[in-house]
Amino acid sequence: MNKKEFWFVVGSQFLYGPEVLDTVARRAEEMAKELSKQLPYPLVYKVTAKTNGEILEVMKEANHDDSCLGVVTWCHTFSPSKMWINGLEILQKPYCHLATQYNREIPNEEIDMDFMNLNQAAHGDREHGFIAARMRKPRKVIAGYWKDEAVIKRLSAWMRTANGVAFSRSLRVMRFGDNMREVAVTEGDKVEVQMKLGWQVNTWPVGKLVETMEAVAEKEIDELMDVYRSSYDFATDDEETVRYQAREEIAIKKMMDAEGCSAFSNTFQDLYGMRQLPGLATQHLMAQGYGYGGEGDWKVSAMQAIMKRMGKDENGASAFMEDYTYNLVPDAKYSLGAHMLEVCPSVAAAKPRIEVHPLGIGDREAPARLVFEGKEGDAIVVSLIDMGGRLRLICQDIHCVKPILPMPNLPVARVMWQAMPNLETGLECWITAGGAHHTVLSYDVTAEQMKDWATIMGIEFVHITKDTTVDSLEKELFLNDIAWKLNR
């Protein structure tokens, strides 16, 4: 994180003389330094831009500097927007327009025409905003006083999103086997995805994984077992089964790291040469920030890795999730999310337990897995689907609760939640939009961040909220279909 930064480019012009320009530069540098103390990444003041050439050069530099994750602009004074055209046209990094001003209040005694000429962000930001709108340039607009907590919080979230964008554009996904047979929603156009999102999605043979597992040393397994003991409670005496999961984890991680992959998928229909389906192995890899998708679902695998990177400390509470069953009792309507093995412990309410139980599918030994309940709190679930010709990102607001039943015979990690606006309407909206059964559930990535990510990536975004109705969503999807067909 220390090697990443955002650039602060401030707009002005020569009209007001060198004294005003010196003041603008001094204030811009002060603002960048103060904001950097509260933002997740440094905001570096680069230039008070006064000409087409200055803007073009700084945008070229931003594009080619790998440490620069995005550009934040602000117009302290009036900055004629035609001089921004060439620079914005070539800018390939995420772009945020911070509409603020240096002073919080209008000073009654101090205000005169000199003050007005210097402090006219209300004038300059509108001119600057027009040209981005005219150019149809994707950008984030954040308005408010730069010292306010709400502004800093939104700017911080956007920075994390921009980091997710950079991560996405270099993301590599390792697939062990293909998709689960006959399943539709886990399919997708890998060429389109690489063009739009940057993902490189390729397959490695399960036999290569088995070879790598066989080469894992017992000392390596001993060391990982110590990590398991310090991180989780052991609720099994079957140490050999747990050690096999450690062997699987070490091998998967070695293969991913060797190929520069940050996410992986597998399927219980292709376990040739393996004694167990990776359970604990997969869960602990997710806890380290790797993305995962079951049944060959490489899209959800990649999205989890990205959303983890967008979360707190670049490994937030985001988990591979699957909708399983509903509680349809009046006044207690909830979704129960789980998976047969693989839910990330980053969403656990308490210390997870390592247990060993038969799986019932895959025709292999009973695997070790982490069992826990998800924590309470507001969250989102996200699904990326291929609509044929375009990608659609569906996001639903939810509220997670402590599971209302102990479910003593269900030996899996589980999360229970209330879907917005309610279970039935939320379900109808999700199905109408084509949302998958696999999702990423996140407590610390917001719907606003996901919308920003989709906007930067140039894909469709659908948000199901407490105010969404089936009728309103159907109209939105109809208009989206028309708009996206026109844009093709």
Automatic annotation (TrEMBL):
Residues 318-460 form the L-arabinose isomerase C-terminal domain. One of its GO terms (biological process) is L-arabinose catabolic process to D-xylulose 5-phosphate. Pathway: Carbohydrate degradation; L-arabinose degradation via L-ribulose; D-xylulose 5-phosphate from L-arabinose (bacterial route): step 1/3. Residues 172-312 form the L-arabinose isomerase central domain. GO terms for cellular component: cytosol. Its EC number is 5.3.1.4. One of its GO terms (molecular function) is L-arabinose isomerase activity. Its cofactor is Mn(2+). It comes from Candidatus Ornithospirochaeta stercoripullorum. PANTHER family: L-ARABINOSE ISOMERASE. Residues 5-166 form the L-arabinose isomerase N-terminal domain. This is L-arabinose isomerase. It comes from the Bacteria. Binds 1 Mn(2+) ion per subunit. Belongs to the arabinose isomerase family. It catalyses: beta-L-arabinopyranose = L-ribulose. Mn(2+) binds at E295, E322, H339, H438. SUPFAM superfamilies: FucI/AraA C-terminal domain-like, FucI/AraA N-terminal and middle domains. Keywords: Arabinose catabolism, Carbohydrate metabolism, Isomerase, Manganese, Metal-binding. The keyword Iron does not apply. Pfam families: AraA_central, AraA_N, Arabinose_Iso_C. Catalyzes the conversion of L-arabinose to L-ribulose.
